[in-house]
Amino acid sequence: MAPGSTGSIVDGIVEDTYNVIKRVSNRVSIIEYPRSGSKAFDIVSSDDEKRLFVRVVESVDSLSRGDVAELKASSRMYGATPLIVARYARGYEIEEDVVYEKHGVYVLSVEGLRSVVEKKEPLYVINYKGLYLIRINPERLRGKRIEKGLSLGDLASILGVSRKTVYEYERGRMCLSIEKALRLLEVFGEEVFEPVNVLENPEISIDELESLSEPDTHIEEKILNKLRSLGYTVVHLKRAPVDVIGCCMEGETISIVIKHYISSRGFRVKVSEAEKIARIINTRKYVVREESDLKILFKEIKN
User: Fold this and answer.
1) Any idea what the CATH number is for the domain that residue 297 is in?
2) Looking at the structure, do residues 233 and 282 belong to the same domain, yes or no?
3) pLDDT at 250 over 80
4) Which end of the chain has the least Cβ crowding within 10 Å, N or C?
5) Which pairing describes strands 43-46 and 51-59: parallel, antiparallel, or unpaired?
C-alpha cells in the first residue's frame, strides 16, 4: 500500500504495539488472518502472569459491536484480557494518559499501553462517552473525610455538590469530573482516587456469548452440538483463524479450524495462524477439512 494509506498506518500501529508487548511478554505474535475485512484480534500474547488479546485500529469508531463481541468472547474463552489500541476516538487523537472504552473493552493509545504494561504506571482518567472522569476509592474517601473531621455537608460545600452526591461518591456509585477531582486532590491527596484497572477481564453477558454460538454451515452445527453435549461452552468466530472455541468445566480449551469455502493456499495460512494462537495459549488445536474428519475429531475430543 502507498505510504500514508489507512493500511500502512494500521500496520505501523500493529508493529509499535507488538514491540511494546514483546518487551514484557515471552510469547507474543501478530495474527495475520483474515488478511482483509474485520478481525477479532491482531496480537496475542501470554506469559506467567497475563494473557492479552489486542485489536489494533486507526480509529476505534470503525469497530462494530460484533467486532468487539468476538474480541471479548475469544479473550474470555482463552482466559485473556481484551484490549483495543487505536490512534483516534470520536474524531480526535487518543490521549496517552487517558483510557477510553468501546462496548465494554478498554481502549488505549500505544503510549498508554506502554505506560500500563511496560512502565507499570497507573492511569486514572477515563473518557466515557466524551466525558473525562476519575474513579474514587470509596473506603479511602470516607476514611480521609472522617480523619479530617469533615461531615458530608462540609465536603459537599468544598466540592460544590450536594450532600447526596458525596454520599454516592462514598458508596462508589459515581465518578468525579476532572474539575471536582482537582478540588478533592487539594483536600485529600491522590490516594483517594482509583486507577483504571486496564488489565482486568471484563464481564461478558450470556447474550453476548449466545450471539456467537450460531453455526454458518452443517459441519459447524455438528461440531457445536457435539461440544455442547460433552459439557463445553462454545463460541463460533467469523473474524479469526479459529472457527470454534470450546471450554469445558475442567478448564481445558480447544480450538477448531474449519476449511469452509477458501482455497487450499488460504486454508494453509489459516491453519498456520491458528497454530500461533494454540502455541501461545497452550491449547489443543484440531483441523477439519471435510465432514469425514468429524468422526476422528469427536473421538479425540472424548479422549
Assistant:
1) 3.40.1350.10
2) yes
3) no
4) C
5) antiparallel
